[in-house]
Amino acid sequence: MYKIIGGDQKEYGPISADQLRQWVAANRVNAETKVQEAGSADWRPLAEFAEFADALEGCTASAAAAPPTRPLPSSPASGEVKRSRMAVASLVLGILGVFTLGLTALVGLVLGILAQVRISGSRGRLSGSGTATAGIVVSAVALVLLPVMAILAGMLLPALASAKTKSQSIMCMSNMKQLALGLRMYADDNKDQFPQGANWCDAIQPYLGGGQALKCFSGDPNQRAHYGFNASLAGTKVSQIQSPAQTVLVFEIEGGWNVSGGPETLLKKPWHGRAVGLAFADGHSEIANPPRLQTMRWEP
Q1: How many CA atoms are closer than 13 Å to the CA of 299, on its beta-carbon side?
Q2: Largest CA distance in the chain
Q3: 142 Cβ partners below 8 Å, 6+ apart?
Q4: Global pTM?
């Protein structure tokens, strides 16, 4: 196998002896063309290679300085051009950095820079400069933007959680307001008396337009109801309640159907921060904190 330096001063090869003879015949190389034999570090004129003496007969020296008329069909001296694996790894790690909050992007950035340096110094032996550039850009974006997004998300999450809690509290108050109204409508149709505690959920169903008002969105979805009825008001006339605005009518519980009782039945682990939802005999509802619970009446 041989390598040559063409008239354009570029290195071609390795090529076989037969191929070199064909180029001699086509006047693409001549006796003065520099040739390097495989395993040797010396460059010598082709005329010094005895094995090509027969091929050089009849060739003119004027062809020596002429560069090849078309690109010689050979690969660079180092062999075939290869794609840089480091460039590919840089791009992959940069993309993964989008999903790992930049953890892999730092490695991707370093590999991208190293790949560019190696590709530039490879004399065409390595390809993938565009891939390396893409890896550098993607990795840099992941390193800069994603941590910022993570910080913003960390700042927004508490606000979103607070908004969700407030929204659920409002919906819970709306439910209890409907229950209080349903109980008063029942009393209007039953000689001014509230229903008995043992069947109060069943008794007010016709006044609710469905059972959704009996369920809190923060409660166990497997429970039919999340509100209890003040047992002290069971069968009591509305007109006999001394302080309707302070007297508990309906309150949050863990869950159950037709549950009635007193303060001991209240929800033990509040769903709205430290506050518990209640509705009163006058029809209004509240999300009450512990100090407020101490001021409420349970007896008519």
Answers
A1: 0
A2: 133
A3: 94, 97, 98, 102, 105, 108
A4: 0.49
